[in-house]
């Protein structure tokens, strides 16, 4: 079955991801999943910062980092340590962070 035909016959988003990026555990799929997670974190950070009416510079000042770091995070361009993530959301934005491991 050709890829386009397989895509048209998919019944779920997971099937589509399998066709496009491979099964879970393959290198291509793992890379996609990692990028998707960075995207979710970056969008959540931007939304929370906007809701708090803070600029990137104001948020950076509140948590003791640089504006350029906040910008890179919001653009999904750098890794973030869990402790830094907690500090930004909890101390900087007054939001609670919970971690789910599945």
Short characterization:
The protein is mainly α and 102 residues long. It has helices at 3-8, 13-21, 27-51, 56-63, 67-74, 82-92. It has one domain: 434 Repressor (Amino-terminal Domain).
Describe the 3D structure.
The chain has six helices and no strands. It is mainly alpha-helical and 102 residues long. It has one domain: lambda repressor-like DNA-binding domains (434 Repressor (Amino-terminal Domain), Orthogonal Bundle). The longest helix has 25 residues, at 27-51. It is elongated, with a radius of gyration of 18 Å. The mean pLDDT is 90.
Topology overview:
Blueprint: H1 3-8, H2 13-21, H3 27-51, H4 56-63, H5 67-74, H6 82-92
Helix pairs in contact: 4-5, 4-6
**How many strands, what sense, and barrel or not for the largest sheet?**
none
Count the domains. 1
The total of helices stands at 6
Instruction: Indicate the CATH class.
Output: Mainly Alpha
CATH third-tier fold name: 434 Repressor (Amino-terminal Domain)
C-alpha Rg (nearest Å): 18 Å
What would the average pLDDT be, to the nearest integer? 90
Note poorly predicted spans: none
Instruction: Report the count of strand segments.
Output: 0
Classify the helix fraction into a percent range: 55-70%
How would you spell out the order of helices and strands?
HHHHHH
Name the CATH superfamily classification: lambda repressor-like DNA-binding domains
- Structural class call reads mainly alpha
Shape estimate: elongated
The name of the CATH architecture is Orthogonal Bundle
Beta-strand percent range: under 5%
Spatial gap, N to C terminus:
33 Å
